[in-house]
Amino acid sequence: MTEWIAVITITLLAVISPGADFALVSRNSLLLSRRAGVLTALGIGLGVLIHVGYTLLGVGLLLQQSAGLFNSLKLAGAAYLIYLGVRMLLSKPDSATHSNAQKPAADGAALRTGLLTNALNPKTAVFIVSLFMQIVQPSTGLATQLGYGAFIALAHVGWFALVALCFSAGPVRDRLLAARRWIDRLFGGLLIGFGTLLALASQHP
Asked: Which of 72, 70, 44, 46 has the alpha carbon at shortest distance from 59?
């Protein structure tokens, strides 16, 4: 019970902290659709499961002990965030509008973007590895650890799905959609900023 309380409390505090995931879900919900925002949130949850999976397999310990490996993850994540940011900065206003024929591709892109953004996020890697190593005891059963991992993933999906619902609400979206070019620039700049900070941090293990 003590472990569960710690996992729940720390997870909820971590998931609501602003970061690249929040910026991405907000942007997709506002400029694309509620569906795109929710799918991005689902992709983020799948990315969390990847971190949980390698942590349970013991790879997380290697990641924690190897500065080179961890810096490689940071650089990969930084490059992806900067790539997304540049795409947003260069996007045209009409690119936010999708026809029905484009929906399947847009759905897949939203899910994939959420997945890759979180899977390459060193902040999430550090959070999950540290959580399992500092709070979870060696005597904790595998089923319980899997339960922790499932809760962490569902907490991410639930929170970011809520963010998607808020940013795609009619009154909010209608007012801001007219300024979508500037919104793309804002969120693109934020992602480039996050990526740049990650890249700089990888130079100082």
From this structure: 70
Q: What pTM was computed for the model?
A: 0.76
Burial class (CB in 10 A: 0-12, 13-18, 19+), 6: middle
DSSP readout, 24-40? Answer: HHHHHHHHT-HHHHHHH
DSSP 46-108: HHHHHHHHHHHTTHHHHHHH-HHHHHHHHHHHHHHHHHHHHHHHH--GGGG---GGGHHHHHH
The two structure tokens encoding residue 127: 């959070």
Determine how many CB atoms are found less than 10 A away from the CB of residue 200: 11
Burial class (CB in 10 A: 0-12, 13-18, 19+), 10: middle
Q: Is 191 helix (H, G, I), strand (E, B) or coil?
A: helix
pLDDT digit string, tens, across residues 170-197: 766 666 666 667 777 777 787 788 778 7
Q: How many CB atoms lie within 10 A of CB 156?
A: 26
Do 81 and 154 meet the contact criterion of CB atoms below 8 Å apart? Answer: no
Place 157 in a pLDDT band, splitting at 50, 70 and 90.
Answer: very high
Q: How many CB atoms lie within 10 A of CB 183?
A: 18
pLDDT of 48-84, one tens digit each? 999 999 888 876 666 666 677 777 777 776 787 788 7
What residue type is 55 in one-letter code? T
Most distant CA atoms of the chain, gap in Å: 56
Q: Which amino acid is at 5?
A: I
